[in-house]
RING-type domain-containing protein
Amino acid sequence: MASQADEDDIPTQPCQCLSLSYGSLPSDMYLAAKNGDLMKVRQFIENGNDINAADSDGYTLLSSACVGGQKTVVRFLQKQLYLHRNVRDWAGDTPLMHAAMMGHAEVVKELVNCPHMCVLDLNACNNYEESALEVAISAGHADVEQVLKNAKLPKLLAPGDFKAALTPIKAKVPSMVKFECQVCLEEYDLEERRARTLSCGHSVCTSCISGILTNYTNRLNCPFCRTLHTGRVSNAAEIPVNFAIDSVIRDLSS
């Protein structure tokens, strides 16, 4: 249970995010985030680079992923404690505004529904005095408009509990069996995140395999050992299910 001191530390107002250092994000990383290359984004952060680095136009990894509608990349980035979510580019647009402008309703939901110590600013306005909601209305994205009109930010956990709920990429403890996909760091399930085993023996969730196939049509290299999966693959469902992990998940849910 959170102490009174912990509760007093829980932020309730939108985060006043840091000013960006323009030109610190390489152009290939902007494209990696925009195109959904999660492994490249993850490696960039693992190498000690700033998760809030921005390119010459002020685009961060998060804003780039929002432009491209890459929900998996957005979800991964929001698991990192030091991410800032209200940063602004040259036009004053935030990542939420970019997702709203492009009509990526699922990404908008991902941003709005994620509890994070950097509290999202739903009412922020860009240099043209437009909020994310107004941007969505101007662009004619009715589905995004409804998400934002009904948005209610989730209640945050106490800081200590919040940190424990995240999955920092450098805090992994080796174990015999992993019950979360080691690419997106989401827990395996029996649907979108169902574990599938590549011919090299490594397991990856269905969603991440689909993302890899989207970027590299009919060519599936293991994201860990880079071994080319045997045979041509057109969709993730063609990869064998890891029934050992399936069995454990079924037992735990029964």
About this structure: The mean pLDDT is 86. The longest strand covers residues 195-197. The chain has two domains: 4-161, 195-253.
